[in-house]
Amino acid sequence: MLPTFGDCDDGNVDVGWLSLDKTAFTLAPGEKVTVTATMTATVDQPGTYTAPIKFTEDTPYQAPSFQATMEVQPPSTWAKLSGTVTGAQCGGTSVPLRGATVQVDSWAMSWTFSTDAQGGYAQWIDRRNNPLTLIVAKDGWKPQTRQVRVSTSAPTVEDFTLSPTRC
Questions:
Q1: d(CA 31, CA 81)
Q2: What is the DSSP string of 18-53?
Q3: Mind listing the pLDDT tens digit of every residue in the chain (167 residues)?
Q4: 81, 118, 111, 123: which is closest to 97 by C-alpha?
Q5: Where in the chain are the domains?
Q6: Is CATH 3.90.550.10 what the domain over 78-162 is classified as, yes or no?
Q7: Of 158, 157, 156, whose CA–CA distance to 79 is shortest?
């Protein structure tokens, strides 16, 4: 490795929705190669997905890098369910509950996920699964359950404030 010619970490990351037809090749001076990137929407949630495409080289010339972006639109019957889970502390202040479990049950299936660092959660769900039962829980806090219906006309926001099991 020469200074300023890249680092030792090749940064390889497996991106399931992106594949390249060539992952290694050797070029003589003046030669070109075409690499075809194929994207497949093998993701379970709508949104914008990005991944870097980098080439490593064994020359003093740096190869260009690229950003692959895939925008996945929700099907017309899908609705967004989101919210925040907070904990009402004994002193009266509320704090976001990171890692709270959110379980969504319907007549057809169930989803279970955890809240992020700000206590937030979001999931796209087919409205044909209505009605939904939401169960939110975290160790040290009293769980809550409620029934909701999602709609494709606007996101459904269900916030929860859990009480501590003891003060």
A1: 51
A2: EEES-S-----TT------EEE----SS-EEEEEEE
A3: 334 444 444 555 678 888 888 888 888 888 888 888 888 877 778 889 888 888 787 778 787 888 889 898 889 999 999 999 999 988 889 999 999 999 999 999 999 999 999 999 999 999 999 999 999 999 999 999 999 999 999 999 999 999 999 88
A4: 118
A5: 18-72, 78-162
A6: no
A7: 156
Question: What residues contact 2, with CB distance under 8 A and at least 6 apart?
Answer: 60
Q: Residue 79 and residue 17: Cα distance in Å, rounded?
A: 23
User: Residue 132: which of 145, 149, 144, 113 has the closest Cα?
Assistant: 149
Give the phi and the psi of residue 63 in degrees, each rounded to 5: -80, 150
- The residues with which 52 forms a beta bridge, in sequence order, are 67
